[in-house]
Predict the structure.
Amino acid sequence: MENCVIIYQSRTGFTEKYARWIGEELGGESYPLCNVNLVHLDEYDLIIFGGGVRAGKIDGIRFVDKTCRQFPDKKIVIFATGAAPQNDAATVERVRSMNVPKNSGIPFFYLQSGFNYELMQGMDKIIIAIAKVMLGRVKNKDGMAREMLAAMQGSYDHSSRELIEPLISCVKSQ
Ligand SMILES: Cc1cc2nc3c(=O)[nH]c(=O)nc-3n(C[C@H](O)[C@H](O)[C@H](O)COP(=O)(O)O)c2cc1C
């Protein structure tokens, strides 16, 4: 297995927690994206990037494009944390297609987290309040939508260390 570094963008702590777990499993350090200038990325064979999902987009994902251009030969892995259930295959696929560069072959992993209203910024709280109203108005909600709406009523944390196993196996087999 190659030496790796984890770079993450986290607003309410979920991605930071997953980055720490991944670092513990792989023996790599994790750094917030705001400190990336202090990291010598060229010293690592593998760069793992993670961020929270916001309306389908992974927070800070531009880092991946920039890094691919700067270090075209480096291996990269992307993970996203989100409130959508782990088994919501359609949402996970949408996040992948909206964020992973086409034909890049970059491995992508989705890790369920939750909502933390206590740490959420004001504007984010407003966006979520609007999303709740809109989701509430959807007629004939499927099970997944009903589950999501119920979950959004308060803070919750469905993150689990077990969910990182596929990512860890992928990295270890490289
Ligand atoms: C404004 C906003 C938009 C969000 N959009 C999505 C989304 O589209 N899909 C999803 O699964 N979770 C969504 N979430 C939940 C976050 O992705 C989830 O809380 C994430 O783990 C936050 O990561 P962080 O705490 O590391 O910033 C959203 C949260 C906020 C505040």
Q: What stands out?
A: The chain has one domain: 4-116+157-172. Residues 4-116+157-172 form a domain with the Rossmann fold fold (CATH 3.40.50.360). The mean pLDDT is 95.
